[in-house]
Amino acid sequence: MSRPYIPKTLRQKVADKAKHRCGYCLTPQSFTAMPMHVEHIIPFAAGGPSTEDNLWLACPLCNGYKRDQTYAIDSVTGEQISLFNPRQQMWSEHFRWSEDGTEIIGLTTCGQATITTLKLNNKYLIRARQRWVMAGWHPPTD
Ligand SMILES: [Zn+2]
Fold first, then answer.
1. Does residue 4 have a cis bond before it (omega within 30 degrees)?
2. Where do the domains of the chain lie?
3. Which of 33, 53, 59, 95 has the CA that lies 20 to 30 A from 87?
4. Is there a contact between 107 and 113 (Cβ–Cβ < 8 Å)?
5. DSSP class of residue 67?
6. Does the predicted model carry a pTM greater than 0.85?
7. Whole-angstrom Cα distance, residue 39 to residue 58?
8. What is the CA(21)–ligand 1 centre distance, in A?
């Protein structure tokens, strides 16, 4: 299935609303050497529309791990847990930064499932965040 065309004006509107950063790991576009993806929160493959209310920014790492998933299975209970929805939910209600600012801590089952599924504390992000902290650029305060 080919990816849908998203008009440039809609991409810009989504990027502006997302503050030009990944909705999951909060990595700013200006910190990466690769363009952010405009992702479908409800996957296109699952019938999610290419409308503003279903689109958000995701970095290539997060979008690559998320793929077409909207939920995770709890390894202990077998329960289906919805992944974080950056358009409808507040990041700070589901996550916080570790004391040193390099890791994302899950505050809810949704937050924890999203950290695990999208590998929000993968070694590449941790190494980058360590340097961003040293530079005084990280963690974000909003
Ligand atoms: Zn990300």
1. no
2. 8-134
3. 33
4. no
5. T
6. yes
7. 6
8. 8
CA 137 to ligand 1 center in whole angstroms: 16
N residues, the chain: 142
The mean per-residue pLDDT over the stretch 63-71 comes to 94
Tokens at 15, concatenated = 């990027």
Per-residue pLDDT of 75-129, as tens digits, reads 788 899 999 999 999 999 999 999 999 999 999 999 999 999 999 999 999 999 9
Distance 9 CA to ligand 1 centre (A): 22
**Which residues, other chains included, contact 134 with Cβ-Cβ below 8 Å and sequence gap of 6+?**
none
Please name which of 92, 72, 85 lies closest in space to residue 40, comparing C-alpha atoms: 85
Distance (Å) from CA 11 to ligand 1 centroid: 17
Q: How far apart are CA 53 and CA 125, in angstroms?
A: 28
* Gap from CA of 26 to ligand 1 centroid (Å): 6
Helix or strand (DSSP H, E) at 64: helix 60-66
